[in-house]
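Phosphoglycerate mutase (Setaria viridis), 229 aa
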Amino acid sequence: MAPASPHGEHFAEVVLVRHGQTDWNVSRIVQGRMDQELNETGRQQAAMVARRLSEETKPAAVYSSDLKRAFQTAQTIAAHCGVSDSDLVIDLALTERHMGLFQGWTIDDAKRSEAFKAFARGGRDQEIPGGGESLDQLFERCVPRLNAIAEKHKGERVVIVSHEAVIEEICKHADPTISVGMKIPNTSISVVHVSGSDGRWILEKFGDAGHLTGDGFPQSTFGGVGVSA
């Protein structure tokens, strides 16, 4: 059987899927680690991305964040793609960035706050007030884990269901020219080819939501400064 990645048998094809929509996405509330479930639109989105993936190369496994909105999406994908329960894996390294003080705030209220203005002036090592993660901490959590997953699945396709900030950080590592202002819609697909043994990453696709029809996607990010809803 030919390897899933066109770059060779040492690469894994990693399909990154953002979770489906929640009510807090619609209301533009910062979720972070707060555990919201999919709304009806989110469940429909999950079914649509699952159908798309079921028509492509079967994934060897589906990995998911522990948060409900991601795991519900992952369960739908696994069911449509014929992935067994034993190959549907919850991975804490894929959970959303901890948004600290801003969790539960609307994006607009957070951006108006003095705490956010001070945070936004910082660099990648700047932690979010109230116990949130810096971008460096987010990187150290998710990028090495992706290398490990890729090493385990060399020559295979895997699906990872995660969150906007995590997917953006992974894609920026693969291609530093990616703009942080680019949108990653709910259930959009990004594809990275990863050689875990030598650390080579190739970004093939970013934020592709061609399987969805119509509009109604939630607004994304805090204006490109690394804080997501």
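The chain is about 35% helix and 15% strand. The CA atoms of residues 194 and 201 lie 5 Å apart. ok done for today
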